[in-house]
Amino acid sequence: MPKSLFEKVWDAHAVRTLANGQTQLLIGTHLIHEVTSPQAFGMMRDLGLKVAMPHRTFATVDHIVPTDQVAEPYRDPLAQAMMDELRKSCREFGITFFDRATGKQGIVHIVGPEQGITQPGTTIACGDSHTSTHGAFGAVAFGIGTTQIRDVLATQTMALGKLKVRRIDVTGRLRPGVYAKDVILHIIRTLGVNGGTGFAYEYGGEVFDRFTMEERMTVCNMSIEGGARAGYVNPDETTFAYLKGRPYSPKDAAWNEAVARWKSFASDAGCHYDDVVTINGADIAPTVTWGINPGQGISIVEAVPDPATAKGVDEKSSIEEALAYMKLKPGAPIKGTKIDVAFIGSCTNGRLSDFQEVARFVKGRKVAAGVKAIAVPGSQIVAAQCEKLGLDKILSEAGFEWRAAGCSMCLAMNPDKLVGDQLCASSSNRNFKGRQGSPTGRTLLMSPLMVAAAAVTGAVADAREVFAVN
Amino acid sequence: MALEKITSITGRAVCVPGNDIDTDRIIPARYLKCITFDSLGEGLFYDVRKNADGTDKPHPLNEARFKGATILLSGANFGCGSSREHAPQAIQKYGFKAVVAEGFAEIFFGNCTTLGIPCAAASREDIARIAAAVEKNPATEVVIDVVKQEIRFAGQTVKATVREAARDALVNGRWDPIGELLDGVPAVKTTAAKLPYVTV
User: pTM of the entire structure?
Assistant: First the structure.
């Protein structure tokens, strides 16, 4: 019987059925970071447990690292304590740690792929909801809580109920100036922030076939913002070309065997999907959020919704709540909304191609007066690649602060935070109330090039016009 | 490890209304800078509960009449966003033993179950009914019956769904799966042996 990638990976990793009907699922790759793992290591010590597969466990530090200070100790003693704790736990349990000194540190969802640790047909777990990113490689990747981190550390498995699979086809071609970020914001806007509950999303269609791995990662990254615990793209030649030669990729004779095995995991023609959604790529425009969840998005040419025209009381109250927080006027165009901060980075859009695209268009332009603009590479390797190409100089000359690798202003567990009710054009993934560090701070999610357009004009703008993209 | 069999939760309730209440709202990121979960209770809903100077904002959890509530009522898609277990930990450390909402985000739901916090889904109308009873008399005793999947309060009974795997885990005292997962370790080795990327 034809099977989807999700089913094949699930079946290959299912250890047994537990008493409550859930599956004990083998997690082949466990990624950890400093925020959600210290308590898990504490539980391990309390229970006297050992890490089952230290060779399949990889650590890095991303959320708390300052991007304007490389030397330790950090100014924030709590951040330093978390750093020290992770170092100590990795040493104690024999876990590979991509510490800053290795030159390979970065956001965990950028490090895994660039090291070749993220591979097709595998299961991956990490105590971070954006673990869905790794699905870009045809892996089944789950964000988990700290007690589950303990479970995976101790047994290399976790208890999980099987997900349903929704196939999302994006057909045709994207228009110029429309990016992977717009595709996922459009999908979330269309299916809703909880539309994916209980599902893994399988993304496909011509648009995904043409996408680079970095574009696929941007989309899979935000699956969780649509409520889907996992999202993936079937592995193909693009996937294999990306992985070839990476530090943890199979080598020599093992490479061909691995590619053959990886191909076998791709969804079979005619397999069963629990749901199928088709989106025409040409219908997707540069998209911007106006509200307080990632589903509250509109195209750059649309107006901010008016609660008076809402469908039903639910939508009306959610629009009202969002507009009150965002201090936006109903019915006003989103274009022209003044911004205070521009942030390019995060596990969604902090990769080489993001900075290449921005640098290509901002070269010779200047960040508008009064706008604080920061560009934060997602990893030390991304930083080095950008610096080798001189992108850091182009961005710096344009008025962006070029920072060291980390999560930065995506979630404000480090010194990069909004102040007061600043409005931030952000390439990150969440626009929740207070997300960027100020309880009244405001976030508009958009693609990196749209952030750049906002940065140089000082207001939300259509990048296609600002940079003559056509 | 013998775990408590969680068949029902009885206590007073408080309603924090709203849909899509996300994990950043439940516990702002700055409270995640910790290496134990012990003091998370004070950060629960902090930015919607407190002003910058630490004084109270109008919020149900700040009202004296709802103090001591152990059941949290809310709207749809509760707990969306991050996988941070800090969110259910903060809810538990604050003193809540169960959450009733129209629906729950997936990861949050799983995290709660693993901590022995039943997440019961009820209809909007029924949650409004419970909230109205609690509003009228905050001392109203609310019973979440996990076995019968119903909520009893002020002489009324409404339907509540606790998904099967979670219900089984709670009522049979196996909501923390570590014991069972450890029992499966020999079988894990068999599965791992068939996966080249795991064995190398």
Answer: 0.97
